[in-house]
Amino acid sequence: MIRNMYIQNGELVTILGGKLKLRHHPFKSLRFLIFLLILFMGMVPCLILRFVVLRSNESHSVSIRMAEIQNQCTILCNQLSVLDTLSGDIPETIDAEITQFSNIYNGRVMIIDQSYRIIEDSYDLDAGKTIISGDVIKCFEGETVSNYDDRNSYIEVTSPIQGTASKEIVGVMLASVSTDNIVDIQENLRQTLDIIIITVFVVLIAVGVLISFYITRPLNRITKAVENMTESYEEDDLHENAFLETIRFSEAFNKMIGRFKVLDESRQEFVSNVSHELKTPLTSMKVLADSLLSQEEVPAELYREFMGDMSEEIERENKIINDLLSLVKMDKTSNDMNIEMLDINLIVERILKRLKPIAQKQNIELVFETFRTVEAEVDETKLSLAVSNLVENAIKYNHENGWVHVSLNADHKFFYLKVADSGMGIPKEAQEHIFERFYRVDKSHSREIGGTGLGLAIARSAVIMHRGAIKVYSEEGEGTTFTVRIPLKYVANAK
Fold first, then answer.
1. pTM for the complete prediction?
2. Which of 42, 308, 321, 460 is surrounded by the fewest CB atoms within 10 Å?
């Protein structure tokens, strides 16, 4: 099997066995996007919660430990305050408590006198040395300072020692306590949260896959149904009621298919009518020609009679073809309007003058009534076709000694043309079809007078191309009235 591949618009196209198959990028898949959205909406809150819990637990643990250390420092400072001065050695009882404090909290305690000299160090490393730091200076000014160094994992607290008698600050206690146990607790909590998040991630993957399949399954069924319908309109209507959106889509799709069916039926009927209308004159001419060929020594008068009949059939065929060409030309040049500001009164008068001889043959009174001078932006050729067909139909489908009244009026936005006649009228059930191509109310009468069934279709197309509207009012046996409304100002691409 031959397989060719190439890139088109950033997508891989495969030609397999002569069939074109487009491979879409997976990131364009609705199922994949739904899956990612579920994963994102589930993981982001989990990650935020993990960060908040870790930070909150660390802050809470540190604040509790810092409060404990501050309390212990305050107790020791109160015991040292009775000395009033730190010039001598620290009593053994207080020294023991300092050592015990250092062991319990795994920290280091230093006692600093007013000259910033370390007189006591629980680690026995810096006794006798001088220490000057911002926290110690602040503490000598009466401010208790507490700091947490998360990078090195320790808490540092400075607490002032006040003399009992003088109430002056005679020294400072500096305590540095390790927070390794808090770090261990944080690490254990972090591992627990990570396990929970990984579990949630796995669950979200499963849930995301299931939900994305569940949501897109109706769309897949719709796609399959549409693919089946492309073969034929005879398939059942689409009914997908999984979601409100799919219900609306099904309804809209069924309406569209209904329109396609109507258009397809109209196309088939149009082709059938065209074939029939073009075939009928040809059949008549063939019958006449065969009749002449089958006879010997045919009189000249019969030849002339048959040739006259054949000429009429040729003329009829020519009229059908001309009307068809007019319709086709309108369809192809619907966006190619030759718009000019023209005198509508003058256009209508010219048309009535040309059709007046036809009306006189049937002794039909042709009257034109105008209420004002009307100027509008129109395509003269197309508007003339519409008016000519309406007036000519009113004359042809009329009674002898009847009348045709044409009136023209306008307001600030539209001009109105009305063509009324005293003819045979149109049945109610036929009025919605009269603008269809080749539709005839009375087929036998239409053929007798040479009608093609295309006149009203041409008129309607011309009016619509001017962004106008055409309506019919008729009672069978009481005549027919056509009303046309067209804007004075032509608006291109109007909807």
1. 0.50
2. 308
